[in-house]
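Thread: Modeling a multi-component assembly for a lab meeting

Hi all, long-time lurker, first post. My supervisor asked me to bring a structural picture of a complex we are working on to next week's group meeting, and I have zero experience with this. I have the sequence lines for every component (235 residues in total). Could someone generate the structure of the whole assembly? Inputs are pasted exactly as I received them:
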Amino acid sequence: QSVLTQSPSASGTPGQRVTISCSGSSSNIGSNTVNWYQHFPGTAPKLLIYSNGHRPSGVPDRFSGSKSGSSASLAISGLQSDDEADYYCAAWDDSLNGYVFGAGTMVTVL
Amino acid sequence: EVHLVESGGGLVQPGGSLTLSCAASGFTFHEYAMTWVRQAPGKGLEWVSGIDDNDGRTYYADSVKGRFTISRDNSKNTLYLVINSLRAEDTAIYYCAKPRLRLVPAAIAYGMDVWGQGTTVTVSS
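Re: Modeling a multi-component assembly
Sure thing. I ran the full set together rather than chain by chain. Output:
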């Protein structure tokens, strides 16, 4: 069981806004930055958001991230069919002295 | 262009050993910490291990501590992961990944921006 809690699934119709939450604790999200990854199974994961809310070059501004206390969220606006993927939050955990991923949220475009 | 290419995966019997390699190119390898992440069938991403750039300090997930050893050869731009006492639950795709930032303590914490395509390890008798 992951130390970062994500809802297992989220869905929306094309054009809608979908929000994915990630809940942690003071030893991980509460004291370190949050990163988000997009993963299509069988391919290399992709860094989507780093340091809570920053997008790497090439990531559309439809994707946004935020953090408050020991929780973080990823929002996808203007949902598109090719956004169907698994999304993972991740952060360094000071207690575990390691990097931890959430269990992932599968986003479905209806 | 930055590239990471994993190799060394395969079918191994329980209790066996395996050495995974990750060949890096397109960046100054010795200036970056490196890390291994795996995904078991039907499961999510799991961070496995990391190694710093400078002092070679190593980090391990509790699930692999004592059985996995991460190392690097900066002269060969290659990252390694030695896996001993393999268990069925080690069956996974193993990815190596490069942090976004270089020459920064705990660089892994700031996100991994380049990933290899993965190498598959299957533990079965």
